[in-house]
Amino acid sequence: MTALRTYYYRVLMPHGGVKTGFYRLAVERDFSVQLRLEQELDATVISLWRLPRAMTATYETLRQLFQREISAEDLAGFLRDMGVMLRAGVPALDALRTVISEGQTSNSKGIARVARQMHKDLDAGISVSDAFARRPDVFPETVRNMMAIGDQSGNLDRMLLESAEHTERVLNIRRDIRTALIYPVFVFATIIAVAVFWITYVIPTLGDLFDQLNADMPAFTVSLIAFSEWVVDRLLMVVLVLAALTVGGIWLVRNHDPTRYAIHTIGHRLPVTRVLITSSGMAAMTEHLAILVRSGLDIVTSLDILTRTTNDLYYRRRLMQVRQAVTRGEGVASSMRAAGGFPAMTVRMIAVGEESGSLDEQLSHLSAEYRKRLSVVIASLSEIIKPAIILVAGGLFFVLVLALLIPIYDLIRQAMQIGGA
Question: How far apart are alpha carbons 323 and 179 in whole angstroms?
Answer without folding.
Answer: 33
